[in-house]
């Protein structure tokens, strides 16, 4: 595509579009990047540049781009029944077949799904559902949900409140009442001189303290991502989840594992909860459910919670597009591909070990304080001093690295000065080699900028 076409799209963006999570003035000064097509693990921009998408879109294109079967599934369903709803005692085959398929994959004892249009709607649903649950059980005062600082649970009012992103809270008085936060298990960033395992216990124990402080009779649930994604691929020390489980077992509160990123194969297991043995009561899902080909989310619910909901009369909650038939048909086909091509098994046995081995090589780089990862998730901490973990005083080193990535045909995401990846699950070993080569190039270029 010619320059003039790129300029045309950039002008439309400036004149008519308000993109998500964007500093509008800064973007308009620079011009947005226009992505025009994609295939496999690659994107193409409007200048014709091929870009390796190490973020799978926004952590979602698990089966990779260009799967015709998903296109066909959508077209078939649109011809048959493009829309109907699940309200007022009606349903349709795609939503029901999908609910069954999800129940087959979900951890034992989680046989029901409530469908939504996104991960944020899933977390709004969760907040409504856990409060409704305790009210049915005769404890309507059990309302508080405990989340974690720097957790991400979406951008609606409930999502932003359950999440612990202080910048989001700062715009418009969040969190809403009845939501509290404890620290995240981010050893590299916040562990100081402690050993990781000691730090994991120390941070998990904050949950116990918080429950005591609020009073168990007022706490409805604890919500957490198995591995924090948007927060910077924060992988808890091994001691963290067992301690959290111990604490939850001592208290009568629900456990919500937000599987929006970890779900559908990201860790090499179907769910992050399987990877860590979490046994949650509710699991918000989205993203990899449809590989991002069409919007869809949901909440997978434990049988005991469902039994209580069954006794509660009408649950006054739902969305026009809950279980949308076209989205459900695409999700079903996506799950068929993941299962029949044994993609999750391949991640676990081959791709993840290979990626993680090669990712660790980057720890040798002068800019990299830590290289970490699980499954097909990875993070690099960019630091000024590898020994002391001292960060750069100047802001934007991560963004600078990200710019070098784009220039070299690679998408990585920067969370502050943490560079993160979450490539499509279908990435092959040669593509991983290309990814590592490109990351190294971009680290070198960033190092020349900031270390001189
Ligand atoms: N929970 C988790 C764990 C997520 O990662 C949501 C809920 C909300 O999903 P929806 O579909 O409403 O966006 C998410 C979304 C980023 C980034 O910059 C991450 C997400 C969304 C947008 C940007 O890493 N995660």
Compact summary:
With 452 residues, this protein is of the alpha/beta class. Helices cover 43% and strands 15% of the residues. 3-[O-phosphonopyridoxyl]--amino-benzoic acid (PXG) binds next to α6.
Characterize the quaternary organization of these chains. single chain
Shape annotation: globular
* Major sheet attributes: 4 strands, mixed
Q: Which regions have little confidence, pLDDT < 50, spanning 5+ residues?
A: none
- What do the pLDDT scores average to? 97
Cofactors and ligands: 3-[O-phosphonopyridoxyl]--amino-benzoic acid
What structural class do the secondary elements suggest?
alpha/beta
Strand order, largest beta sheet = 1-2-3-13
- Tell me what portion of residues adopts beta-strand conformation: 15-25%
Distance between the termini: 36 Å
CA gyration radius, whole angstroms: 22 Å
| Secondary structure tally: strands | 15
| Helix fraction bin | 40-55%
Number of helices: 17
Key phrases:
alpha/beta, four-stranded parallel β-sheet, 15% strand, 452 residues, binds 3-[O-phosphonopyridoxyl]--amino-benzoic acid, 17 helices, four-stranded mixed β-sheet, 43% helix
Please give a structural write-up.
The chain is of the alpha/beta class. Helix content is 43%, strand content 15%. Strand 7 (219-224), helix 11 (240-250) and strand 8 (254-257) form a beta-alpha-beta unit. Helix 5 (93-105) packs parallel to helix 14 (325-340) and helix 16 (397-407) packs across helix 17 (429-450). The radius of gyration is 22 Å and the shape is globular. The relative contact order is 0.14. It binds 3-[O-phosphonopyridoxyl]--amino-benzoic acid (PXG).
């Amino acid at each position: 595509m010619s320059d003039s076409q790129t300029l045309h799209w950039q002008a439309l963006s400036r004149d008519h579009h308000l993109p998500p999570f964007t500093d509008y003035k800064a973007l308009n000064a620079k011009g947005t990047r226009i992505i025009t097509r994609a295939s496999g693990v690659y994107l193409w921009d409007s200048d014709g540049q091929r870009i390796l998408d190490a973020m799978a879109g926004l952590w979602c294109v698990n089966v990779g781009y260009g799967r015709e079967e998903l296109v066909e599934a959508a077209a078939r369903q649109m011809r048959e029944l493009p829309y109907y709803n699940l309200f007022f005692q009606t349903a349709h085959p795609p939503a029901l077949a999908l609910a069954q398929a999800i129940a087959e994959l979900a951890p034992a004892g989680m046989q029901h799904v409530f469908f939504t249009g996104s991960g944020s709607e899933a977390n709004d649903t969760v907040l409504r559902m856990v409060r409704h649950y305790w009210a049915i059980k005769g404890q309507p005062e059990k309302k508080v949900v405990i989340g974690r600082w720097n957790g991400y649970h979406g951008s609606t009012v409930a999502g932003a409140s359950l999440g612990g992103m202080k910048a989001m809270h700062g715009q418009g008085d969040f969190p809403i009442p009845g939501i509290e936060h404890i620290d995240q298990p981010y050893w590299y960033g916040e562990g100081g001189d402690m050993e990781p395992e000691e730090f994991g216990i120390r941070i998990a124990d904050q949950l116990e303290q918080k429950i005591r402080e609020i009073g168990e009779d007022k706490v409805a649930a604890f919500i957490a991502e198995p591995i924090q994604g948007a927060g910077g691929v924060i992988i808890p020390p091994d001691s963290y989840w067992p301690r959290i489980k111990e604490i939850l077992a001592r208290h009568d509160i629900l456990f919500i594992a937000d599987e929006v990123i970890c779900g559908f194969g990201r860790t090499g297991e179907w769910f992050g909860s399987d990877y860590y043995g979490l046994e949650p009561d509710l699991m918000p899902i989205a993203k990899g459910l449809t590989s991002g080909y069409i919007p869809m989310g949901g909440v997978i619910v434990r049988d005991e919670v469902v039994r209580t909901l069954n006794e509660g009369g009408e649950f006054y909650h739902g969305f026009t597009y809950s279980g949308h038939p076209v989205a459900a048909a695409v999700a079903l086909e996506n799950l068929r591909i993941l299962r029949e091509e044994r993609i999750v098994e391949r991640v676990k046995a081959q791709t993840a070990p290979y990626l993680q081995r090669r990712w660790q090589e980057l720890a040798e780089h002068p800019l990299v304080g830590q290289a970490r990862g699980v499954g097909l998730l990875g993070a690099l901490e960019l630091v000024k001093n590898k020994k002391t973990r001292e960060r750069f005083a100047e802001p934007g080193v991560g963004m600078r690295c990200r710019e070098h990535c784009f220039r070299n045909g690679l998408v990585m995401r920067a969370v502050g000065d943490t560079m993160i990846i979450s490539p499509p699950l279908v990435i092959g070993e040669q593509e991983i080699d290309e990814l590592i080569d490109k990351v190294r190039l971009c680290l070198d270029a960033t190092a020349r900028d900031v270390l001189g």
